[in-house]
Request: fold
Amino acid sequence: AIPWPCTFPMKLWLLVNSPCIGSVRWDARGEGLFIDQRLFEQELLGVGPSAAGEVELFRTKNFCSIVRQLNLYGFHKLTVSSTSSVVGLGPAPAAAAGDNSYADGPLHHFWNPHFRFGRPDLLVKIRRLTKASKEKLDAGLEVTSRLPDDLQY
Reply:
């Protein structure tokens, strides 16, 4: 089994950078990510006919729970427009090559100021929002976290 890191942002980082995962891709600017809901449910939540089910990355099979996690970690949903485009690091899924949409959809676009292509160092700034950390953010104070032990330098 793959030793997946414990934090949700780190799991998301590995997924969006994996050439084997077709449901999560960087946007064209590398400043946000696109998630194809149906493909994500099949690939990663074990829902549907092509579910691998070998490694359980998330403790849920409900996509709404993933969106809730994104929100708790400060990701914001953006409107997917006709000018949005999907970019991948490896071979793009056939449905994403040459157009701006996935075959299955619905397509979700999320953004976080500390989730950037080529900047894993920013992940420590992504913190799960708790009442205390939300109060700190509202007061203009910085809220940080640390990398999991297996990723310390």
About this structure: The chain has a mean pLDDT of 76. The longest strand covers residues 32-36.
